[in-house]
Amino acid sequence: MTVEHFQKTLETLMSRQPFKAFTIELNAGQRIEIDNPLVAAFSEGAGVFLAPGGVPVFFDHESVNQMGATAHSTGEFTSLNREGAAF
Q: Domains in the chain and their CATH numbers?
């Protein structure tokens, strides 16, 4: 994922009013659910998520496979892939 796409997508997801939870899927398959805008920060293609217990999880534009809105009922999410196409 490009730095520009990473930044634009996170800016959009983090600034929605009212805030809606979203998921970041890393290349290794790990999923990070952002359920509160205060638990994550990002800048210049890198980010950090504070997991329960205050454990930081670092990620960057190269480690992200996709990110998008979480569908809690199905466990799946609508996302944008590395090229910016919707799934």
A: 3-80 (2.30.30.100)
